[in-house]
């Protein structure tokens, strides 16, 4: 289920629907036979050591590793999920938390449709830094990017430095969703990604509806010819 390739962040569109074409230009045969309806690009950010890579490893392989191998630059994994009868391919970018990779990782914000902000409930500092990660998002990501706050390592209750309530309050302050997770004990990891994906899908479908209002019986006749659907829409295999 894993596929890896180099992706140029500059070529990834801002948080928009990624058109899925059956004739997509791709050298990869598997890519040509599209097995999904939507492609969502997600991003994991947060201090080094909070468990971003482990969360993604749990989500993509349902496994866990206790050795800490700090991410160098950026990496990604793929998992396709089913949401209300639609196949959603999640391309999840895992960023390095270390400061020295900030230039590289920041380049990936722009293409993200959803961002997971992760802290470690046993590290107060990683929680305090969430406000700085939020600022990074505000400065570099699309204005309408979906965000979610995760307090990871929640099975380590005896080492806890950040109460669940503080996590909840911070999320309310930013108007985003919050969950405590454990990559190790496999708590809420699937739930978190499914929630973020569902929020993106809902927002996207609302936007598509607004662009294509259903034809009712009592609508006023348009004065001008209705605009043609954008080319990417006609290419989309949903229509
Ligand atoms: N107890 C516990 N340990 C965890 C959990 N998630 C991750 N860890 C451990 O925390 C350490 C750091 O995890 P990583 O996933 O590599 O952290 P990261 O956020 O990717 O760090 P960078 O790549 O440097 O940004 C590793 O030793 C993991 O085993 C968890 O849910 N519970
Ligand atoms: Mg990592």
Automatic annotation (TrEMBL):
Nucleotide-binding recorded as keyword: yes
**Example GO molecular function:** GTPase activity
- TM spans (from-to): none
Return the Pfam families for the record.
Ras (PF00071)
Indicate yes or no for the key word Magnesium: no
Q: Which UniProt keywords apply?
A: GTP-binding, Lipoprotein, Membrane, Nucleotide-binding, Prenylation
Q: Name one GO cellular component term.
A: cytoplasm
Classify the protein's membrane topology as the record does.
Lipid-anchor
Q: Where in the cell is it found?
A: Endomembrane system
| Main localization, broad class | membrane
Instruction: Read off the PROSITE patterns from this record.
Output: RAB (PS51419), RAS (PS51421), RHO (PS51420)
Q: Which family does it belong to?
A: Belongs to the small GTPase superfamily. Rab family.
NCBIfam families linked to this entry? small_GTP (TIGR00231)
Q: Which PANTHER family match?
A: LD44762P
**This chain belongs to which protein, by name?**
Uncharacterized protein
